[in-house]
């Protein structure tokens, strides 16, 4: 009898105890904001919605004071922080690396146009509205799963700074100590990385798609000036007609040795190179005689001789390959166990031209030229670029590049994916 | 000449000794004897089935009905009679036998058996390793009569103590060796929770002879889990605790041997509970056991036994001290998060590996022969879940970039200046972000400090395949209307099909000597694969190598996990990623000779065998296509080279009994064993490449033990020495740096280890039922020689280290405290009360090492610094975990009722509530460089991850048996 009682108690206890450990309900959707949140009674009623152009204009407003990185490290030699100054034109090199700290309760609303799924965008979210586009320094990855292209986001700008990185304005955190070397010009703002900071400033709006209305179209024979293109920086633009142009790149860093990179550098979207390309180059370099060295006739009619091997690398870098043409990949890609050093130039540019353009760029860059810039980490990095002379339409985000001294100006298009370059 | 004389003298001595003892035994006029009855101390109820051993002579019997036993025809002399019974305190009586038969009454009291003995008291720790299909649980279930093992087995398990530094001991079940075929792990998890059914054990510590095989060098246990060996009657218990699980219920019933020759036994148990001590850890485990046996004919016996332990439980992962300090919780578990308001653990074990055994025994009526034949089959599923993701952000909450340390510069000691001015980790200053990151952790919002499941599910729901941009899927998928999961829960499976057959013939050549022969065979096929366990809100996942995508052309075969089925859509339950078989065939034959004299026993045995195993890949991995096999010497699809090994083992020992109170035993063994499948391949998930330098592992073991038994003290001292050479091992870590994000494997070979030390144990009765017990292990386990390592990454063909030398020589072996000491007091009162208090001390426990830190590649650029040697020493240095002290106590009470026995026991551990005792952990597999200046920066190690001992916790057990 006792046995039966105990067994019954045992059974009862066990059934009472066994919970369903692995059955879960569905979590609710994300909380999303809309314009109502900024109205009377809304959660963000204290914030004032402004356009992107209005916020960007704060940088050039002479009534605003711009600041420069103040904190310094003993490690830095020769770095002199600059004094605060009045607002000015971001394209003016004198304003490079300055930032305007936004303290007022201001917010902007924009549609996400960059997509980090394919690796060409990594950290940094580009948003745009009708008036312009801007990069938000969100130091996150996998953003395409939450801040999808076409989604509206609201950026609460108080506590962020509007910084000028070589003429491109962006919103981020105030800069702190930087790795600086002699006279180096620092970053004007920093990525938001702590999740609570990101969630504090970036508010998810309504889901949506990128429509034709969102894309600014530059027609095939539309005359485009640098000023117009500069205003489109940060926006998603479609260039209806561009022609691929392969050019030999003359490296100005070694003016005494004009280095002509015969098609190696422009063979793929990135300067990742595969074994075959490296092999070809090495074979060429090591072969003292006998290897065919045909010259290359460019579409502009100029004939370039295949360069001498000894001119195919930058001296003093300790690197055994053209710094521009080859990027440190996995070290596995090196044959004979050599390691490729990492270069600063981990991207490549495919050059396109449109004769109608009149872009004031650098002296050795043509006014008709646009670069399609791609990161070596992008998924399509290894795809070959369009053949010399091929025509295409290109849809991407406009950027403007200069060096720290304001030279080497180039306008660039950053595409989300190589499929945004549609051959005609 | 001299030798010949010696041999002749020895032979003469031996023969005279034999003849004397024979004569004594056969003395026609021996009329003395010992009879008696064994009863309970309280109530004087007779106890049947108690084992009674008469020494000298080693005659054994069992008490029959009425608790009676009898030894007759004994010559005059002094004898010691020992009484051993299930759950009873061993009793000893010294008897002087003259010409008549002595009649004695032996009262016995219940032993304070620790019902708490449970391998799950050692929480299952997630080592983020991939070879985590099983872990070699502790041997707390082994109830050895050896004084040292008895104490050390349970008491030291809190610190994961391994006797003699050896991870595994040989475990036999009904005479068949049950250690895992592919890893060698002790298989306790197969019958976890079936404590009552597996209580009948013959355990032997160290090197020594066993009856069912040659056995190993670090203890052997044979569990007699058959109906007739189970304790007759009913036994149930209900337990609750605050450590691993909340509630345990066990019930067992065995019929004992019935008159009609049948016997049967059943047992069932369950352990349930969540977040008993650590958040996210939960138990939903069951155990079932059934056995039936029939005796027939003359000495024939057939038994059928089956059991299983369906288990589901959530694991705890280690984290860094930084995280434990920020959360102010030494038991922070990064594995869980809130899923729609409910705690959900990403790492869940889900196993059911039943075993079926058919056994046949024949006992020759003349007592000369015993024949055993056993067939065992083990099958089932063994799964361990984890998060997997494609192209998304790392969802793990303690990812290093989410910690405040990422946002601050670390300054280390500079031996040149004597100040902390050497740049350590990444010289960045992020004042505001540092503060915010700090606040994020201290505020303890689980959305940020644990996995944010709700966010993951939403990301999955909205995600769509971008067909326009070249993303592809093959299968029943509508890419526009179905959500493509970016995050899934995968389940890594290790499903075994293991069949064994063992035959043993015991031949009692004479009353003093015995020859045992045996033959065994094992056939194993295990499938390793992973499945999509949960799509987490999405509709499908895709089978591609997520991280090769970055390095390879998107359309190429190289990014496929299975070239034959590219871009395959995956739904819940589908296999993906990797799929391969391990095939193992192992056979052996052994022979053992035992000889017993009056004071001397000796044995010698040998075993020879053959082991063959190979990997059979079932999918062709894009990174390792068979087409490339010629240049790299291995494939991913198809069979690897068969690895064949000739194995052999030899053992011998001698044991000397002096006067019944002293026993000396000397044992020596040599074992040439095949390596384990687990350690044989450099990257078993992806390719058939064999670890370079793979060969048999050789072990030489010697131990010398002295046991002393007097009524006033029992002492056991043992010295041991083991030298192992040519060991192989594989360690896998998940490397989450942006560049890698895949498993990285360290396949090592040529490992040499030397373990030596002293074990001391004593039990000294003081007064009023109080005894002092103590056990100390003073060990020195070091690596001898430098092994080699090859480091591979699962998602790439690249080898970071290729047969590189690892500077392990002289370093201490990790994973177990080499010094462990226990001092305790125990009380046994006459009226069923037991109590005990234990003070334990541990030292020389070393953190699990990452071989990478001890290779030349880790020393890069250090020679460019004047204090380069300092940097190198820092890199190589072992992490010795601090000296630990714990205080545990227990109390229990038994009542003998009319219809059985009722007992209650309460155990309290870590009474000092010390949350700072590290029990283990591991070094992370990655190193930092200060900056991008690869040409000049040296490496620094990432922070190590630790596990801490639970603070004060309790276990209450109520048990009833009749």
Detail the topology: elements first, then pairings.
The complex is a heterodimer of chains A (424) and B (962).
Chain A: H1 2-17, E1 48-50, H2 52-60, E2 65-66, E3 85-86, E4 99-101, E5 106-112, E6 125-129, E7 132-136, E8 152-156, E9 161-165, E10 168-172, H3 195-201, E11 202-204, E12 216-218, E13 224-225, H4 226-231, E14 236-244, H5 275-286, E15 296-297, E16 303-304, E17 347-353, E18 357-358, E19 369-375, E20 391-401, E21 410-414, E22 421-423
Parallel strand pairs in A: 1-5, 7-10, 12-14, 13-18, 19-21
Antiparallel strand pairs in A: 2-3, 4-9, 5-6, 5-8, 6-7, 8-11, 9-10, 14-17, 14-20, 15-16, 17-19, 20-21, 20-22
Chain B: H1 2-25, E1 32-40, E2 51-55, E3 59-62, E4 68-74, E5 77-84, E6 91-97, E7 101-108, E8 125-126, H2 147-155, E9 170-173, E10 176-177, E11 201-204, E12 220-223, E13 233-241, E14 247-254, E15 262-274, E16 282-296, E17 300-308, E18 311-314, E19 316-317, E20 319-320, H3 321-326, E21 336-339, E22 342-345, E23 348-352, E24 355-363, E25 369-378, E26 381-389, E27 411-414, E28 419-423, H4 431-443, H5 446-449, E29 451-452, H6 453-462, E30 487-507, E31 513-534, E32 541-543, H7 548-551, E33 568-570, E34 575-596, E35 600-617, H8 629-632, E36 638-639, E37 643-658, E38 662-673, E39 697-710, E40 713-735, E41 742-767, E42 770-783, E43 788-793, E44 799-805, E45 819-828, E46 833-843, E47 845-846, H9 868-876, E48 880-881, E49 884-897, E50 900-909, E51 918-922, E52 927-929, E53 939-941, E54 945-948, E55 953-961
Parallel strand pairs in B: 1-7, 8-19, 9-12, 21-29
Antiparallel strand pairs in B: 1-4, 2-3, 2-5, 5-6, 9-10, 11-12, 13-14, 13-55, 14-15, 15-16, 16-17, 16-18, 17-24, 18-23, 20-54, 21-22, 23-26, 24-25, 25-30, 26-30, 27-28, 30-31, 31-34, 32-33, 34-35, 35-36, 35-37, 37-38, 38-39, 39-40, 40-41, 41-42, 41-43, 42-45, 43-44, 45-46, 46-49, 47-48, 49-50, 50-55, ...
């Amino acid at each position: 009898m006792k046995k039966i009682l105990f067994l019954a108690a045992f059974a009862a206890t066990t059934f009472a105890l066994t919970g369903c450990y692995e059955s879960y309900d569905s979590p609710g959707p994300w909380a999303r904001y809309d314009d109502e949140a900024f109205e009377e009674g809304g959660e963000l009623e204290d914030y004032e919605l402004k356009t992107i152009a209005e916020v960007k204009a704060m940088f050039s407003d002479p009534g605003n004071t711009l600041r420069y990185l103040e904190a310094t490290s003993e490690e830095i030699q020769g770095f002199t922080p600059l004094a605060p100054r009045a607002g000015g034109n971001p394209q003016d090199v004198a304003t490079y690396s300055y930032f305007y700290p936004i303290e007022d309760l201001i917010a902007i609303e924009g549609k996400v146009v960059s997509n980090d799924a394919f690796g060409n965008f990594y950290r940094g979210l580009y948003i745009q509205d009708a008036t312009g586009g801007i990069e938000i320094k969100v130091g996150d990855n996998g953003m395409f799963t939450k801040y999808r292209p076409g989604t509206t986001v609201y950026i609460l700008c108080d506590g962020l700074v509007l910084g000028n990185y070589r003429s491109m304005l962006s919103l981020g955190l105030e800069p702190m100590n930087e790795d600086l070397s002699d006279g180096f010009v620092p970053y004007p703002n920093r990525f938001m990385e702590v999740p609570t900071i990101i969630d504090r400033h970036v508010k998810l709006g309504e889901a949506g798609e990128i429509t034709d209305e969102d894309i600014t179209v530059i027609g095939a024979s539309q005359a485009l000036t640098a000023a117009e293109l500069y205003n489109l920086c940060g926006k998603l633009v479609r260039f209806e007609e561009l022609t691929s142009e392969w050019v030999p790149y003359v490296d100005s860093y070694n003016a005494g040795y004009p280095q002509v990179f015969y098609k190696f550098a422009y063979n793929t979207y990135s300067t990742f190179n595969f074994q075959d390309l490296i092999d070809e180059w090495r074979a060429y370099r090591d072969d003292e005689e006998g290897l065919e060295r045909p010259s290359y006739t460019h579409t502009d009619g100029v004939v370039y001789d295949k360069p001498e091997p000894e001119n195919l690398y930058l001296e003093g870098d300790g690197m055994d390959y053209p710094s521009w043409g080859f990027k440190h990949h996995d070290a596995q890609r090196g044959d004979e166990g050599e390691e490729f050093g990492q270069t600063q130039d981990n991207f490549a540019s495919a050059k396109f031209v449109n004769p109608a353009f009149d872009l004031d760029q650098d002296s050795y860059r043509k006014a008709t030229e646009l670069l399609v810039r791609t990161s070596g980490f992008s998924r399509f990095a290894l795809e070959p670029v369009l053949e010399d002379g091929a025509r295409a339409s290109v849809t991407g985000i406009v950027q403007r590049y200069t060096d720290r001294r304001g030279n080497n100006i180039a306008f660039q298009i950053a595409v989300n994916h190589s499929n945004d370059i549609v051959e005609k | 000449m001299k030798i010949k004389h010696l041999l002749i003298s020895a032979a003469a001595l031996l023969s005279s000794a034999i003849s004397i003892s024979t004569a004594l035994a056969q003395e026609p006029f021996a009329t003395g004897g010992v009879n008696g009855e064994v009863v309970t101390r309280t109530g004087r109820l007779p106890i049947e089935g108690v084992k009674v051993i008469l020494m000298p002579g080693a005659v054994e019997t069992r008490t029959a009905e009425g608790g009676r036993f009898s030894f007759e025809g004994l010559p005059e002399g002094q004898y010691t009679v020992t009484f051993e019974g299930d759950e009873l305190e061993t009793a000893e009586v010294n008897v002087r036998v003259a010409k008549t038969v002595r009649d004695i009454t032996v009262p016995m009291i219940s032993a304070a058996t620790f019902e708490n003995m449970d391998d799950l008291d050692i929480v299952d720790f997630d080592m983020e390793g991939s070879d985590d299909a099983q872990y070699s649980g502790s041997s707390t279930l082994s109830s050895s009569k050896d004084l040292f093992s008895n104490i050390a087995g349970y008491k030291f398990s809190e610190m994961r103590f391994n006797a003699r530094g050896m991870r595994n001991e040989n475990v036999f079940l009904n005479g068949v060796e049950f250690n895992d075929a592919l890893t060698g792990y002790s298989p306790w998890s197969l019958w976890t929770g079936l404590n009552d059914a597996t209580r009948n054990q013959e355990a032997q510590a160290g090197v020594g002879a066993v009856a069912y095989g040659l056995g190993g060098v670090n203890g052997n246990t044979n569990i007699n889990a058959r109906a007739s060996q189970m304790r007759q009657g009913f036994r149930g218990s209900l337990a609750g605790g605050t450590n691993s699980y909340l509630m345990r219920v066990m019930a067992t019933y065995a019929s004992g041997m019935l008159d009609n020759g049948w016997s049967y036994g059943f047992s069932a148990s369950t352990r349930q509970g969540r977040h008993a001590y650590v958040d996210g850890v939960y138990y939903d485990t069951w155990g079932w056991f059934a056995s039936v046996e029939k005796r027939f004919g003359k000495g024939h016996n057939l038994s059928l036994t089956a059991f299983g332990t369906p288990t589901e439980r959530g694991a705890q992962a280690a984290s860094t001290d930084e995280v434990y300090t920020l959360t102010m919780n030494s038991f922070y578990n990064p594995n869980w998060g809130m899923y729609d308001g409910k705690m959900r653990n990403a790492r869940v074990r889900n196993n059911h590996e039943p075993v079926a055994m058919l056994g046949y025994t024949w006992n020759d009526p003349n007592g000369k022969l015993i024949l055993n034949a056993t067939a065992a089959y083990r099958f089932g599923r063994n799964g361990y879940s984890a998060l997997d993701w494609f192209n998304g952000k790392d969802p793990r909450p303690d990812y290093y970039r989410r910690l405040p340390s990422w946002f601050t510069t670390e300054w280390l000691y500079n031996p040149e200046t004597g100040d902390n001015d050497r740049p350590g980790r990444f010289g960045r200053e992020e004042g505001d972000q540092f503060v915010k990151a700090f606040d994020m952790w201290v505020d303890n919002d689980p959305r940020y400090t644990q996995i944010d499941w709700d966010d993951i599910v939403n990301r999955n729901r909205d995600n769509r395949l971008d067909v326009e941009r070249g993303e592809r899927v093959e299968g029943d998928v509508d890419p526009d209307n179905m959500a493509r999961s970016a995050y899934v829960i995968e389940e890594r499976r290790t499903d075994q099909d293991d069949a064994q057959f063992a035959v043993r013939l015991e031949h009692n050549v004479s009353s003093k000597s015995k020859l045992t022969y045996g033959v065994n065979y094992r056939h194993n096929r295990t499938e390793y694969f992973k499945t999509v366990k949960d799509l987490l809100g999405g509709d499908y996942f895709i089978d591609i190598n997520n991280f090769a995508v970055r390095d390879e052309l998107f359309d190429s075969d190289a990014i496929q996990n299975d070239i034959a089925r590219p871009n395959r859509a995956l739904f819940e339950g589908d296999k993906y990623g990797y799929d391969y078989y391990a095939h193992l065939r192992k056979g052996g034959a052994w022979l053992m000779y035992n000889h017993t004299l009056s004071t001397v026993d000796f044995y010698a045995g040998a075993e020879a065998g053959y082991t063959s195993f190979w990997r059979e890949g079932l999918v062709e991995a894009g990174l390792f296509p068979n087409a490339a096999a010629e240049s790299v010497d291995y494939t991913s699809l198809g069979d690897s080279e068969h690895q064949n090994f000739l194995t052999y083992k030899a053992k011998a020992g001698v044991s000397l009994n002096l006067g019944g109170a002293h026993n000396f035993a000397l044992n020596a063994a040599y074992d040439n064993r095949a390596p384990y499948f687990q350690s044989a391949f450099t990257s078993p998930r992806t390719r058939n490449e064999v670890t370079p330098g793979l060969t048999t592992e050789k072990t030489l073991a010697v131990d010398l033990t002295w046991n002393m038994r007097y009524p006033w003290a029992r002492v056991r001292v043992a010295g041991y020495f083991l030298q192992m050479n040519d060991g192989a091992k594989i360690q896998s870590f998940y490397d989450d740096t942006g560049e890698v994000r895949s498993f990285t494997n360290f396949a090592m070979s040529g490992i040499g280890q030397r373990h030596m030390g002293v074990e001391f144990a004593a039990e000294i009765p003081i007064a009023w039922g109080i005894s002092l017990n103590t056990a100390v292990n003073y060990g020195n386990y070091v690596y001898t020689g430098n092994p080699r390592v090859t480091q591979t990454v699962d998602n790439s063909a690249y080898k970071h280290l290729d047969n590189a030398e690892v500077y392990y020589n002289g370093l201490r072996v990790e994973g177990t405290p080499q010094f462990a000491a226990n001092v305790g007091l125990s009380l046994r009162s006459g009226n069923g009360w037991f109590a005990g208090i234990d003070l334990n001390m541990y030292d020389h426990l070393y953190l699990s090492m990452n071989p990478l830190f001890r290779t030349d590649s880790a020393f890069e650029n250090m020679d460019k610094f004047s204090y380069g040697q300092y940097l190198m020493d820092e890199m190589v240095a072992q992490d010795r975990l601090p000296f630990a002290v714990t205080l545990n106590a227990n109390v229990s009470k038994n009542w003998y009722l009319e219809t059985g026995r009722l007992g209650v026991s309460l155990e309290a551990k870590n009474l000092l509530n010390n949350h700072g005792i590290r029990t283990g952990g591991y070094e992370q597999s990655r190193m930092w460089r200060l900056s991008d200046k690869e040409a000049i920066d040296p490496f620094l190690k990432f922070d190590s991850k630790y596990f801490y001992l639970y603070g004060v916790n309790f276990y209450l057990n109520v048990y009833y048996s009749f």
